[in-house]
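Why do we bother with holo predictions? Because pocket geometry can differ from the apo form. Keep that in mind while you read this record for nickel (II) ion.
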Amino acid sequence: PTPSARGPVSWLSLALTAATGAGLVVWYDHLKSQKVQGIAAAGAATAGAAAIGGPFAGLVKVGKDGATSPFSSDDLAGAGWHLLYFGFTHCPDVCPDELEKVAAAVDALAAGDKKKGKPPLALTPVFISLDPARDTPAQVGAYVKEFHPSMLGVTGPEEAVKAAARAYRVYHARAPTGPEPGDYLIDHSIITYLVSPDGRFVTFFGKQVDVQGLAAAVWERAAEWEKEHGGVAAAMRA
Ligand code: NI
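The structure, written out:
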């Protein structure tokens, strides 16, 4: 097929890949747009794993002490496993629910499961804001603390945030809720991304996955990856 026949890889095709695989019903946070739902229903090409992830730069990370430092996709390489979630701190319900789930899964993985022969797996959760206009580093730093002590808060200039979202095929759009410029929510895709210690996208999880399901699936994919790469340490040396 010609490139155009295959179509561009997009957030939409990512959503459909997941929808097909997992029977997913709810994908968008606060979504009001019939048009987007219509497009989603119309069908599209599916995205390969290779098309998700990739370089982004120019963001700001907020550490545990509130100190800020530059953040880019390079920071995901050589620093263990990561779970990425894109959202916004003013999100009324979906983001808090998803971040609580991620935090609980991180704790479950860190504990391991001796009975099932699963060694502990260390994983850093990362929250990336899709609302840099309101999500200052201080705001993001305070927000992530509510969920997990090891969760990194990331925000940055609007263009840098957009580029990171684009790299991970995250759909996001402002949805006005009132007359003031600050009256808005952000419709966004609800996806948690697993990133391996070499900084590459491995797989993603939707809203329908619960804590146990998320932890089990992450553990399984991480075990596969580490077997293939001779463990995290060996992969880091390579
Ligand atoms: Ni949200």
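Strands lie at 28-29, 59-62, 68-71, 81-87, 123-129, 152-155, 172-176, 184-189, 192-195, 201-205.
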